[in-house]
Amino acid sequence: MAANVTLRKLVAAALLLTPAGCLSLLAQTRITLQQAGSRSGNDFTPTYDGQEVLIKGQVASAPVWAVDSYYVALRDDADYGLLLFGPANQFQGLNLGDWLEVHGTVSRRAGLPVLLPAEIHKLSSQPPPAPRRVKLADLTSFRYLGMMVTTEGVVSTVSESSAGEVINIGDRSRSLNVYLPKARRQSSPGLGNYRIGDRIRVTGLATQYSPIPPYDRSFQLLIADASAVSLVERGWLIPPLLLLTALCGIVFVLVIWWLRERRMAKQRNTLRTLNGLGEEIIAASSPAEILNKLSTVVIKVAHATDVRLYLYNRRTKSLDQVTGPNDPRPVSINVDLPKEGLATGAAVCFRNRVLLNVPDTRRSPLIKASAKGDLPRSVMFVPMFAQTELVGVLELDHAESLRYFNQEEQAAAQHLANQVATSLKLQEQQSIREQLFRSEKLAATGQLISGVASELSAPLKSIVKLSTALAVRAAGGLPERDLRVLAAEAQRAAEIVNRLVSFAKAEDSTAKKVEVNSLVAGLLQFRTREWQALELELVNHLAEVPVYVLGAQGQLEQVFLNLLIHAEQSVADSADKTITVCSSLLARRVLVEISYASRSGESPFFDPFAEGRNGDAGSLGLGVCRGIVQSHGGEIRYARPSDAASRFEVELPLADSKTPSESGSRIEATRGARALTVLLVEPDASVQKQLVSLLSARGHRVVPMNTAEEAADLVQRLRFDATICSIKLPGLNWVEFFERVRSNVGAFVLITDGYDPELVRAFQDGEGYLLSRPIEVPDLERILKSIEEGKTAEVRR
Can you tell me whether residue 780 is helix, strand or coil? Predict the structure, then answer.
């Protein structure tokens, strides 16, 4: 190698001595390394691209393999660099630190200016220059291209291809590729030992690989082998930023979960409170009691300051406010022409049948400016619906500040308002029933009073006549026969008056044994003289054997008296003026039949238990009679054997063998037990009315439903101690209904049509109770007693 260099020096010296050599040296352009690496134009093309130049520089690196040839880095005194590009044999004999004078052509390789040497002259040797320490951000420019540099950075990616291995260091804003070309026979380890996050130090050639103009990007460090890369600091398995982000995310999720659980717990507590309030509202006996319960609970739950209740008065077409401790003065709002203030909002809510939310009463167009000074700041009006009937308006006030009632609060308020409406309808129905019962008694009493005069006139005339005769014959002694007649007539008049007084006074509903045949016979005797005056004929086929039933004697007297009056009114205009009364025993039930001729012109489809006709005072009372008979566990029917004949059939269960005092005490004990809230699902109207009467008479609250779907939906909103369900249901069958409600009701009672061994075995395992048709009062009382005992034990626990 030394011989070759010497030979080249001799040849060069010889050329310089010749005229041609001198001309060659004069033709070469001597430039600096900075000039050789300069750029020009919009594409940043090397300025001296394709020109022959003469440069001087010091060798700063050993030859580095670059896919198909080698790079050698030169460095000058001005601290600029340039790469020589050529085959390996062209750089033989060169050592680090040698000063060279190179003649060659400037070219570009993937946008990087390089010198293709034609002649290399070694001028001298000095110690090799150390690699220049450069910041990573400064290597993404033209300044240090072609120099041997050292820099540090954090590994962001590690990749490999068929051409070599690449490590990207830096961040997204400034990054640099470290490129290790893959040699044909490379056996040294590569860059696979480094991972993302490691901080490394790299020593290599500052190069560029930008095959497409403009040539101002894709800067990289070219290294000869993996030893040019050293580990400064091992990175985290998980990047700190990613770890911090994950921890913040976990904390955020936990905070959201805690807030959600807190909100859900608050909602569950509110729901339980509202459900308990709904049960108390259903059991309330008056609107004032409902308002009192609302004021106690809703103010805490809904954060309201006041609650008002308005009920619609159909007669005056106005909303009447329910008075309470905060509003002792009654207020009436005209629905069509309301006064200023909150009356306008209540009237608009009622007329439009929609919930009305007023967050700020001072800016609401519904409320006049003159009335805003004394009003609460926020208010919500909620219509109260009992199914489709609008009952009134519920008002929630917030006096302190602006309040936007959200969707959940509005839905809860609407649900609560509907429960209030349902309770009010139940109270109304109970009041109507009691008033009807009393009014029918008074109506029957009024009818009796019309005949009292004629009934009393006969015995009183006899008493007067006998008394006068006895006074005339007082001197001769009083005959025994006349005295007995006088006593009988006086006793008869007293019985008539006593019966009338007892019928008009409040009824004692205590259950005791009643002899049916003697009760009906007494009524027949009571009406005999009036029927004789009307030329009515009575056929009495009552059984002579005493027959006892368990019930209230006064109520049963009213039932049979109303039936007899109806028969009397029907035959008054008929040709056949005959009334036939008979009684018989069937199984353990007594059947009383009242047969009579149908009224002339009466429709074959006439139903005396339906709404009464004009002028028929008894028809309305027959509806009450049916309820009374059903409350005694019996049944009343109307039959038309022919177009000209009609018949009432009253069927009552016989009393058991216990004494009347024992039976009465048993009923009173039942009434004294804990009151139950019962859901009744029975599509048969007659059975439904019978059970409602029986349960209501024993002090229990009953909510009747006709379909299982509506009942299942109601169970999700209200709490029931027991559910009584018929085995025959339209739509949803009883098994599906039982599965849907079994977890939400205290007890389940199934009404069956007969004995079923499968059901008996299933319900013996504690699934529920069985109640067979026809409904027997002792069976129902046994089931109710078992349910009540279970509820009492639960309360004690």
Answer: helix
DSSP string for residues in 295-341: HHHHHHHS--SEEEEEEEETTTTEEEEPP-SS--S--EEESSS--ST
Give the type of residue at 356: L
Give the separation between CA 648 and CA 560, rounded to whole angstroms. 10
Query: How many residues are present in the chain?
Result: 797
The answer for 97, left when phi > 0, alpha when psi is -120 to 50, beta otherwise, is left
Q: Which two tokens stand for residue 709?
A: 């779907």
Placement of tokens 């499968």 in the chain: 758
Task: Give the pLDDT band of residue 769 (cuts 50, 70, 90).
Answer: confident
What mean pLDDT do residues 725-738 have? Answer: 79
Q: Which residues fall within 8 angstroms of residue 339, CB to CB, at 6 or more apart?
A: 333
Q: Is the pTM of this model over 0.70?
A: no
Q: Are strands 701-705 and 677-681 parallel, antiparallel or unpaired?
A: parallel
**Helix or strand or coil: residue 353?**
coil
Of 776, 569, 749, the residue nearest 656 (C-alpha) = 776
How far apart CA 752 and CA 689 sit, in angstroms, is 17
Which residues partner with 394 through β-bridges? 309, 382
CB atoms within 10 A of CB 766: 6
- Residue 397, SS3 per DSSP: strand
**Could you tell me the two tokens for 543?**
């059984």
pLDDT digits (tens, 9 = 90+) for 671-717: 444 667 888 888 887 788 788 878 877 777 778 887 888 888 778 77
Distance CA 559, CA 523 (A): 11
Closest CA to 666 of 496, 547, 790, 782: 782
**DSSP designation for 94:** -
Which two structure tokens, joined as six digits, stand for 504? 């008009």
Phi-psi region of 183 (alpha: psi -120 to 50; beta: other; left: phi over 0): beta
